[in-house]
Structures are given as structure tokens and as C-alpha cells.
Amino acid sequence: MSLLEVTDLAVHLFTNRGVVRAVDGVSFSLDAGRSLGIVGESGCGKTMTALSLMRLIPEPPARIVSGSIRFDGEDVVTMSSPRLRALRGNQIGMIYQDPMTSLNPVFTVGEQIAEAVRLHRHDTRNAAWARAVEVLRLVGIPDPDRVASAYPHQLSGGMRQRVVIGMALACDPKLLVADEPTTALDVTIQAQILELLRRLQGELGTGIILITHDLGVIADLVDDVVVMYAGKLVEHAPVRRLFAAPRHPYTQGLLRSVPSLETREHRLLTIDGTVPPAHAMPNGCRFNPRCALVRDICHEQEPPLVDAGGGTQVACWALT
Amino acid sequence: MIGYILRRLLEVIPTVLLVLTLVFFALRIMPGDPAIAALGEFATPDAIARFREKLGLNQPLYMQYFGFIAQSLTADFGTSMNNGAPIGDLLGQALPYTISLALAATSIGIVIGLPLGAMTAVHRDGKLDAFGRLFALIGFSLPDFYFGILLLLVFSLHLDWFPMLGGGKGFFDQLHHLVLPAITLGLVMAAFTMRLTRSSLLEVLKRDYVRTARGKGVAERWVIFKHALRNALIPVTTGMGIYLLTTLSGTITVELVFSRPGLGTLLIGGVSARDYTLVQAGLVVFAFFVVVVNLLTDLLCAAIDPRITLR
Ligand SMILES: Nc1ncnc2c1ncn2[C@@H]1O[C@H](COP(=O)(O)OP(=O)(O)O)[C@@H](O)[C@H]1O
Ligand SMILES: [Mg+2]
């Protein structure tokens, strides 16, 4: 049985300007100890997907309108709030995009980590604090005893992200969800944090969902990749396969825009155009305004997700 | 923290000097000769000269200034020009009535305003929120003196639950006398605190770290009362400090309505009796209040928010 099984998930945002279908019929699954990348440009619904896994989406305006999220066999979508609280921070740990804003400024980082430990393990204050110091050491923070007593504003961005990672790992979760954990950081720090995630993955054997808009980041970090475009899952493939033989025109475009390591040239090629605004989604395939292979049917009907061989699934009329 | 307290105390010194200087010059700039004001139009030149001599008004301005600063700092305000009573004694009798009123009103503001503000934020647009809006509307639009008189009419004159006038003698009597004035002043304080808490908490509840707390499995109750409220209290404390200063003038109105023998009553009495030295001393005390309230506000903020003292 899979650790996580997301089926036909749809998250819509009910705003004054209309309904935004931020996530629309997305399915994927993850076995224990495995890792999955979710890739797509900004605004594709990656964060909404990630937050849904623990039902952390901002309600209102957001709501899970259909689908199921089975974690260890239990559906998160219909779970009672006590069960949900027992899941959050305990079975699933979450790393957020911006470490500057995701820590509470009025509590020490040690307290913030220890809080999760006390909540889920019913440890004493001292034991929880000791665990906080231990995870700070685990995430590579020098002098963890001292840092535990520091407030977030006294730490650098990279340090804070290590704290957030430590907080997510404090209760030995089965699944770690990292939503663009390096996007807000300097390039050198980015590499360090990715290296840390790689090391932790090897040491702890935690299942990981790593979200990014940069395919280059995940090549050697995940087993499988889900490519999202405008709330839709457009391609799902093993990572090697995706890099070797990308099928969807959008995936191909994303791959071409990965900066090459040899030349250090940044984003020479990008996909023309931008993600359509949420309230003006084109009919049929949502990628059709930017697609080189567009044909009539693309304007009329949404392409279904079909098997394309080699473990790849793709949603594109040009390939069916 | 201790370093911060010391630094903040040191900063009080220039503020106090500045405020005293302002009081001094404000009184000198006021039109009219205090001697004529005190002794009347038909005082003999001889009497006026003696009066000026006694108050030191014939000395050069800078001597008067330094004398005034020295007197203020040692709380030696001389005697009342009118009845010769030591001003220090008059102030000592009046101050407890004003301080107790200000403290009681602030407490009412906090005890009612904070929880109500938090609840209206959490149940935004619900029934309680509608009630809160109405409460704020009444609190803000009802003038102090009008509300005070209303309370007097209903609860003193009609129901006879509370004494009409005065400050009371002995602890329990004084407490009894404090209730209606404190409610009068506390209502607007509560309305203000409630609205400020509500908007501040709504703002904080949108922050990322609130989501982080939920993501750890913290129960919603604790997300609000531990993680969000502590942060929301920072602007509330600052706002209440400023508001308390504006309510100090409110204490004057309320003291007049309830004939409380507090600082406001003393000061107004001094003004109408043209008691120059008394008014001067009263202003110094009010100015001192302002400095103390500011200091306390800052220290409270520092206790809530570690970013103020730790870098
Ligand atoms: N609070 C919100 N109100 C309205 N629309 C939102 C809100 N949050 C996100 N969206 C919209 O939902 C879509 C998906 O957003 P998100 O999941 O954050 O994308 P990603 O993480 O891939 O950048 C976007 O079109 C975005 O504009
Ligand atoms: Mg995002």
C-alpha cells in the first residue's frame, strides 16, 4: 500500500473575482521512503497541492471540492480535526518557501521546535528541549545549544530554513513536504540546503515531496516527477525518463530552460508567454496558447492523462 | 532587557527637561500679568511689587527658568497663591483619585476590550462581531460627560446604588465612588482596545507563522491565544499607551462630572482662581504622567517582543 495516494484532487478558490481552479483533478502516489518532485512555473497550483496534503489551505477562500488524499489508508479530506492535528507535524512535516516569515518572531526557535515534540510525544519540557537541540544538530547547525535559545530574527535566512527543516523532522515524520525550500535563499545557501535534504533523505529514509519551479534542483533528489501546468497534471514520469525523454511540450520547454551546468548560462531559453490568469483559462488544453504543436482539438477538449510507455503518463492531444 | 530598561530610563531625562521647558515658556507666553490676574485690576503698585517679589517674577528669565526646573525636579512647588496651602500637599491629596481613575479605566478597557476584540476577530462577521461593532459605535460616539451624567441619573439618582459625588473616605467608600467614573472612562477605552485588538489579530492571523503553527498540529485555540495574540498585542500596547494619554484629558471631564477631588478638579479650580503656581505645578504633574505612561508602554512592548531588546 502506498504511503500517500492522491486521487483526482481539486482545490478551488472562491474569490470575489470568480472561482480559481488552482488544482484541478490531480492524482499521484508515493510509497514509503520514496521521493516525488512536483514541478511547474509559479502559479501552477503547487503550493495549494502541498498545503492540501495536511489541509492547511486557507479556508476561505480555498476549498477542496473533490478528490481524496489517502495517507496511510486514511482520507485526509474527510478526517476529523483531532485526527488531523495528530497527523500534522507528526506524520507529515512541512517545509515552507520563505524562512523569513514562517517562524514566529516572539518565541525562541528551540521553543518552536519543542512545542511540536511536546504536542505529539507528550514529552516533558526538558526532554522536548533536548530533542529540539538534537534536531538542530541533525540539520547541521553549529552550536545548537546556543541557537536553540535564539529568536528567529537573530538568525540568517539559511539558518532559519535549517530550523524549519528541523521543526518538520522533530517527530520523525513518515513524509516530508518541502514547498520550494530554497527559492527565497541565496544561491550558495540554496546548494547547502539541497545538500542537507539529500543527506537527511539518505539517513532517515523519510518519504519526500519536493516542490520546485526549477527542474535542475531535483534531478538527483527524487525518484519520480509530476509536472503541473495551470492546476493540471500534464506529465508524470520517473525522473531519469523525464530528463531523457520528456513528452509534453511544456515539460520540454521547462527542460530547455534549465541552466546548463557547463556554461553556467542562465535560462537562455524560456517558454514563450505566461501562465494564463486564473479567471481567463482557455478552453480545452490549458497550455494551448503557448504550445507549438497546437491543433483544433486542443481548443475543444481537455486531453486525458494516458500511458506513453516507459512509466510515463502524459496529457497531450499531440501524443495520442 | 536590563540594559534596555536602563537605556530607556536615561532617555527619560532629556524628555522631562524638554517638557518642563515647554511648560515654563507656555506659562510665560500666556497673555496678562499673573500678579494683576491674582490680585485684581485695582491692586496697589506696592502690592503688585511684593507679589512679584514673592514669586520671583522680578528675577531675570534664566534665573526663573533654573529655579523652576530645580523646584519641579525636587517636587517643591511652593504654596498656593490663593490660600497659602503647600501645593505639594494639594497634589498629594488629588493624585490618588486621578491615578486610581486612570488605572481602573485602563483595566476595564483591557478586561473587556482584549477578549472581545479577540473573539470578534476569530468569529469575524458573526453575531458577536456585529455586537462588537455596535459597542464600538456607542463607545466612540457617546461623549464622556454625557455618558457620565447618564450613569449618575440612572444608578445614583434613580436606583441609589452608587454615591452621587465626591471621592469617598476610606478604602471601600473610595472604591464605591470609583465605579461610575471608571465605567464612564472605561467604556471608550474598551471600545478602542477591542477594535485595535480585532484588526491587529486579523492581520496577524494571515501571517505565515500562524500557518506554521497549524502545520505542527497546534490546536486552533492555542494557535490564536498563544501564537497569534502575543504578536497582535504589540500594536495594541503601543496604541493603548497613546490612547491613555489622550484619555488623561478625559479624566478632567469625568472628575468634573462626578466632582472627584482629583488632579483635573484641582487644575480647573486653579485656573478659575488664577492660581498661577498651582496651574504650573499641575501641568508639571500631567507632563510627568505622559513621560511615565510612555516609558511603561515601551517597557511592556519590550517584554512582549524580543526584537526590541535583542539584536
Ligand atoms: N489566497 C488566494 N486568493 C486567490 N487566489 C489565490 C490565493 N492563493 C493562491 N491563489 C491562486 O491559486 C493559483 C495557484 O497558486 P499556488 O498554489 O500558490 O501556485 P504555485 O505554488 O505553483 O506558485 C494561482 O493562480 C494563484 O493566483
Ligand atoms: Mg508556491
Give an account of the 3D structure.
Chain A is 31% helix and 23% strand. Chain A is built from eleven helices and twelve strands. In chain A, a hairpin with a 2-residue loop joins strand 4 and strand 5 (74-75). In chain A, helix 3 (109-121) crosses helix 4 and helix 3 (109-121) runs parallel beside helix 6 (157-169). The radius of gyration of chain A is 20 Å and the shape is globular. Chain A starts with a strand and ends in a 6-residue tail after the last strand. Chain B has 311 residues and is an all-alpha fold. Chain B has a domain at 94-276: MetI-like (MetI-like fold). Chain B is built from 13 helices and no strands. Chain B is globular. Chains A and B meet through helix 2 and helix 3 of A and helix 9 and helix 10 of B. The structure holds adenosine-5'-diphosphate (ADP) and magnesium ion (MG). Magnesium ion binds next to helix 1 of chain A. Magnesium ion is lined by residues 46-47, 97, 179-180 of chain A.
Q: Descriptors for this entry?
A:
heterodimer; A: 320 residues; alpha/beta; 12 strands; 31% helix; 23% strand; globular; B: 311 residues; mainly alpha; MetI-like fold; binds adenosine-5'-diphosphate; binds magnesium ion
Helix fraction bin of chain B:
over 70%
Helix coverage percent of chain A: 25-40%
Largest sheet, strands/sense/barrel of chain A: 8 strands, mixed
For the record, what is the CATH homologous superfamily label of the domain at 94-276 in chain B? MetI-like
